[in-house]
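dumping this here so i dont lose it
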């Protein structure tokens, strides 16, 4: 749509954006964000290395396209992932994924041509998925490193004084995390394994968590030895992080220039590298997971370490060593992403479910909520809720077990939010509206209370509305203004596939009845019955009404996953699966053409003028009458 062939088409696109923007404003939408993880960004024709990045020219093309329609892009986690696991939600908390480095830039004069054009071309030509919109994770993980190794050698030979000075400054300013992350890389080479629990050397495993005075002396000498032996490898790691940081900063400036805010994503997990570097700050013998539920009778054993509450805050309420580390992390994220941070699994910060290492995350095997288990023999010392606060008729894994809390207790549950997350945002010049809380699924009373106390914005996922609960928070009529509404996230099938599953089913019918009551409240009699029949038998019609629902709701913020916006009938992530096929879906290089084709009558893309028109009409006759002119303008664009 942006790369139009003539001035007339560009003018039409400008009008398209202007009218849609006006409609969004009239509907009370403050933010309209496109969800697209970095690896899902498109490539330009002939320049597909096997992995997407916002830092490429193609990334900037997507921003050009989004600008004027969207005012934000919700990215995925940016951390460095492992060769054997492409999930961005297990990446490092500080180090940036080297796969986000745009190799083409390194072939330019600005970077002293430190990467040869032949190497760049070879990486693109050898990409096994160069002609399809999928990443080639295993391929590019190795190929990217080889290309960056070449760039590093040439960077040293180039010896550019200006960049060398910038590089030294970067290493100094980021030493608090970079030194340990780079050292882990060296020890992975030394031990022939990048998974530290399998390292033969006990000293290497406990380098930053010595158990005795003797070990303290040994680790001091060992660290000195490794830093000397692998000095160049450590510097290479820092170089890669420097390049990634420099490119990301340029991308941030480009986005802001085009009125787009980039929103980061903070996963609840810690990577292997992080759990090794900061193992002294984690609760020994405990892991983070989810309790048994409808989807998993044994619960979900994530295997992520749990921050030790006693290391989070000191007795006087000031930040402890772990608290300082996490605040520095959030400060870095808010600084690099002025659009804010989406916190994945907010319950993991406020009321986490923990289980014993080697056990299942089930109550009968000792699992419980870290701050809500006053009856637990081991977790009771961390409890904020008391026995009097519990509904003892409910098991420890039930959401509503904590039934009441005092103001003081709520403040204790929310201490990490207030003193770390909100404080970090403020110090970077942002407010609490820059915090997006993923509160889908489990929502315990402590989480609800903290969200309310600090007036935080949660999410409303309409695809998961429970049709038999009139007060369900995901239902259109119940969605509160201070929230982010969406039909799906990176973990869901596209809404077109959901609609296919719903038509001609009883569950679909029950969903449609609620949808019609909320969206077409003024309809009755035969008109209402006819509409219900249509929506229970026509998947495309159901999809459009479901999309219009989030815009018709009172939510001030809207997010749309890229598959739903562009009408791509494929799934990005299938929870519980691994391998190169997962987390691999990308936008095709002709994404603009795809969108234009898919907003046609038979297409599956989000036809924004049509959807916004439906949303305005859903607000009622008076509201529609007030916006007659706008409705006519939208009609012309459909």
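and the seq i came up w/
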């Amino acid at each position: 749509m942006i790369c139009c062939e003539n001035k007339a088409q560009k003018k039409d696109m400008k009008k398209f954006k202007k009218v849609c923007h006006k409609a969004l404003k009239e509907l009370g939408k403050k933010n309209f964000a496109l969800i697209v993880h970095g690896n899902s960004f498109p490539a330009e024709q002939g320049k597909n290395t096997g992995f997407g990045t916002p830092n490429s020219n193609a990334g900037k093309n997507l921003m050009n396209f989004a600008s004027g329609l969207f005012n934000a892009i919700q990215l995925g986690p940016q951390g460095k992932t492992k060769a054997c696991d492409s999930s961005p939600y297990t990446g490092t908390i500080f180090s940036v994924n080297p796969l986000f480095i745009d190799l083409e830039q390194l072939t330019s004069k600005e970077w002293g041509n430190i990467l040869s054009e032949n190497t760049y071309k070879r990486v693109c030509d050898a990409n096994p998925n160069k002609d399809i919109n999928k990443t080639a994770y295993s391929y590019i993980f190795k190929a990217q490193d080889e290309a960056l190794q070449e760039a590093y050698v040439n960077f040293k030979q180039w010896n550019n004084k200006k960049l060398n000075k910038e590089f030294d400054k970067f290493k100094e300013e980021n030493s608090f995390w970079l030194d340990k992350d780079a050292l882990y890389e060296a020890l992975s080479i030394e031990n022939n394994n990048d998974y530290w629990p399998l390292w033969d050397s006990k000293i290497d495993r406990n380098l930053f968590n010595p158990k005795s005075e003797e070990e303290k002396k040994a680790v001091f000498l060992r660290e000195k030895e490794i830093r000397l032996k692998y000095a160049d490898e450590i510097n290479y790691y820092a170089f890669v992080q420097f390049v990634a940081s420099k490119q990301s900063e340029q991308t941030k400036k480009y986005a802001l220039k085009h009125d787009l805010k980039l929103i980061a994503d903070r996963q609840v997990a810690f990577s292997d590298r992080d759990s090794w570097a900061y193992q002294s700050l984690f609760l020994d013998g405990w892991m983070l997971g989810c309790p048994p539920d409808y989807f998993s009778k044994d619960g979900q054993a994530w295997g992520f370490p749990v921050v030790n509450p006693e290391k989070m805050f000191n007795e006087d309420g000031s930040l402890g060593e772990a608290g300082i580390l996490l605040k520095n992390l959030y400060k870095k994220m808010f600084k690099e992403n002025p659009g804010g941070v989406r916190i994945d699994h907010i319950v993991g910060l406020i009321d986490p479910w923990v289980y014993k290492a080697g056990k299942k995350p089930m109550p009968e095997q000792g699992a419980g909520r870290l701050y809500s288990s006053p009856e637990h023999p081991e977790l009771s010392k961390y409890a904020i809720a008391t026995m009097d606060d519990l509904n003892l008729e409910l098991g420890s894994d039930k959401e509503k077990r904590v039934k009441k809390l005092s103001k003081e207790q709520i403040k204790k549950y929310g201490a990490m939010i207030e003193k770390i997350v909100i404080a970090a945002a403020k110090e970077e010049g942002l407010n609490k509206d820059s915090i997006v809380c993923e509160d889908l699924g489990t929502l315990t009373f402590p989480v609800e209370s903290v969200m309310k106390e600090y007036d935080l914005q949660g999410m409303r996922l309409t695809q998961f509305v429970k049709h038999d609960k009139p007060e369900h928070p995901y239902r259109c009529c119940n969605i509160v203004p201070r929230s982010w509404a969406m039909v799906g996230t990176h973990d869901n099938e596209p809404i077109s596939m959901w609609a296919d599953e719903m038509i001609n089913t009883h569950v679909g019918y029950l969903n449609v009845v609620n949808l019609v009551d909320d969206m077409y409240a003024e309809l009755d009699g035969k008109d209402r019955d006819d509409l219900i029949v249509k929506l229970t038998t026509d998947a495309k019609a159901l999809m459009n009404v479901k999309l219009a629902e989030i815009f018709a709701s009172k939510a001030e913020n809207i997010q749309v996953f890229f598959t739903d916006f562009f009408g791509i009938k494929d799934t990005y992530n299938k929870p519980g699966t691994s391998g190169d096929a997962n987390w691999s879906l990308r936008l095709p290089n002709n994404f603009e053409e795809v969108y234009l084709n898919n907003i046609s009558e038979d297409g599956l893309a989000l036809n924004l003028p049509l959807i916004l028109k439906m949303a305005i009409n859903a607000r009622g006759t008076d509201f529609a009458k007030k916006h007659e002119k706008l409705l006519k303008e939208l009609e012309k664009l459909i």
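The CA atoms of residues 509 and 533 lie 8 Å apart.
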